[in-house]
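Tokens for Mannitol dehydrogenase family protein. Go.
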Amino acid sequence: MAITLSQSALDQMPGEVGVPTYDRAALRPGILHVGIGNFHRAHMGWYLDQLFEQGAGHDWALIGAGVRPGDAAMRDRLAAQDWLTTVVELDPEGLSARVIGAMVDFVPVDPAAVIAAMADPAIRIVSLTITEGGYYVDAKTDGFDAAHPDMAHDAANPDAPHGVFGMILAALRQRRAAGHAPFTVMSCDNLPENGHVCARTVIGLARIADPDLAEWIAATVAFPNSMVDCITPATSDRERALVADRFGITDAAPVVCEPYRQWVLEDNFPQGRPPLEKVGAQFVTDVGKYELMKLRILNGGHAAIAYPSALLGHHFVHDAMADPQIEAWLRALETREVIPTLKPIEGVDYADYLELIVSRFANPEIGDTIQRLCLDGSNRQPKFILPTLADALKEGRDIDGLAQEVAFWCRYCERTDEAGNAIAPNDDNSESLREHALASRGDPLAFLQNRTVFGGLADDPRFQEAFARKLKLVQDQGVRAAIATYLG
């Protein structure tokens, strides 16, 4: 019989399962995290649990928070098991499990409750995992999208905001009025210069809601950049059954992840921070180079294999990587066009990093799906592919492979694979993307007219020519012919 996860059941766990040996009741909260998903628990939650296990940082425990209706369901699942999570590392050499206990509370999913928790001076860091598309970036200007209805609402209703940035402003306003120091705001999302992007959104909203507060935030609130990395698939019945059958634990919200993590942070925390360097995090002066390496090679690599693999009918990422053409396509694109856009990092060999990425993608234990990699392309392409393309164009480099990746995405947006099977919508802009993709059958450049995604790149004649040529190839001859042409 599997043991239902709870604090009282920790001493009943199988001997092979790691459990907290620190006193969770003695932990004091110092971080409020918005977005308690799988990645956060496999990454920040894991690092803090490791730190607490060493006897350090016990005043930096986590409080969870959410702003979407779906977050309430996660709160209910975690509340029933005393905020504990089983993290299973999917190492091909042998699976391992640990129950992590860094979270001590999860505030009700209610704006007033979230604001009150942020306003508590014990909270010195507010961290975010809200997806790459959650920062209200205007694709045309790459600046803050002040006209977005969500931002207009929160600017007009500063005491009753709907979104996390409005809640941050309300809490900072309260702390300022009470004479308390502001918390640090730390983005943990996959964005270039995520701290700067986060600052731009918070200060941009403040400027239309409360200009005086905006100036105070700009002068006193820190927004450190960070690079985060750990491949973490979605949890389904498959993963819950794995935890129950393999480790004897009934966990309503387990997390499975690869046995690899990286966290590189800018050391800019005026109100203090946990000593995460004790457990492998890196604190550096300039995170930007590390961010760019990961976003372009890993996240861009995911995008590169996602769409051709989906069109060929691959389900799991490791199955796609076992397809010699897909692996060769990934290696060629990264080596020829992606890595040349990166500046050197002392002590880092990009060829070695690429080999690490290839091995991570090929890990059969992870069970990551091509469907997950294809999610939200209209937000991910402008973050992971198009900036590389823009730099390659600016530097006069080859762009055939990058144009081919966009062509694969266009063909995918038609929502049928090469065998004629339907592809379910998986993007908030699915209908618009499909219309543009189908129109490109008659006019190849129709897809590029989606200005929300492509901005000024749509007008670049080199990109137009390469995209039209590559799209016709994949439309007329299929994915394998397109890859073979590029490899040849």
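The first strand starts at residue 3 and ends at 4.
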